[in-house]
């Protein structure tokens, strides 16, 4: 069975349409491309210390989002999105041999914040 086919429902069942694959859209239908870049050090949100002098720093990410028209590559605009400003330390983490003892992780804003930032272009593309 190919990825685009869905099995027929059994007698008495109702067929439900398959959810669109938003992670692998049809390239022929793509209208916009958004590129995201972490543009610098945000504030330190949390420092987590573990045995063996391992430290994990969590910083608030600051991201520039640039939107392009897929067909032409024309730049449509930019937006700024700020990552979360809270984090908590996990009780235990794994560090691999040879990995630096301290590590910085950038807190992203999450999908709802990116959707909000992209809404002006996405909504314009739908009309």
Order of helices and strands: EEEEEEH
Output the number of helix runs: 1
| Annotation, overall tally of beta strands | 6
Widest sheet: strand ordering:
1-4-5
The structural class is mainly beta
Low-confidence residue ranges:
none
Rounded to the nearest angstrom, the distance between the terminal CA atoms is 35 Å
The helicity comes to 10-25%
Shape: elongated
Beta strand %: 35-45%
**What is the typical, i.e. mean, pLDDT?**
82
Rg (CA only): 21 Å
Largest sheet: 3 strands, antiparallel
Oligomer state equals: single chain
Mind sketching the topology for me?
Layout: E1 32-40, E2 44-50, E3 54-60, E4 62-69, E5 75-82, E6 102-107, H1 111-126
Parallel strand pairs: 3-6
Antiparallel strand pairs: 1-4, 2-3, 4-5
Q: What distinguishing features does this structure have?
A:
single chain, 127 residues, mainly beta, three-stranded mixed sheet, 13% helix, elongated
Question: Brief description of this entry?
Answer:
This protein is mainly beta and 127 residues long. It is 13% helix and 35% strand.
How does this structure look, described?
By secondary structure, the chain is mainly β. Helices cover 13% and strands 35% of the residues. The chain contains one helix and six strands. It has one helix at residues 111-126, and strands at residues 32-40, 44-50, 54-60, 62-69, 75-82, 102-107. Strand 2 and strand 3 form a beta hairpin. The longest helix has 16 residues, at 111-126. The chain is elongated and about 50 Å long. The two termini are 35 Å apart. The relative contact order is 0.20. The mean pLDDT is 82.
């Amino acid at each position: 069975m190919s990825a685009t086919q869905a099995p027929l429902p059994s007698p008495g069942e109702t067929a439900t349409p398959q959810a669109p694959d938003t992670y692998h859209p049809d390239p022929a239908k793509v209208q916009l491309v958004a590129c995201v870049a972490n543009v610098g050090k945000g504030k330190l949100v949390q420092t987590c210390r573990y045995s063996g002098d391992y430290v994990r720093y969590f910083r608030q990410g600051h991201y520039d989002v640039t939107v392009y028209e897929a067909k032409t590559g024309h730049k449509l605009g930019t937006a700024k999105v700020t990552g979360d400003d809270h984090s908590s330390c996990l009780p235990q983490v794994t560090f691999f041999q040879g990995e630096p003892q301290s590590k910085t992780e950038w807190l992203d804003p999450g999908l709802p914040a990116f959707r909000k930032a992209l809404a002006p272009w996405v909504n314009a593309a739908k009309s």
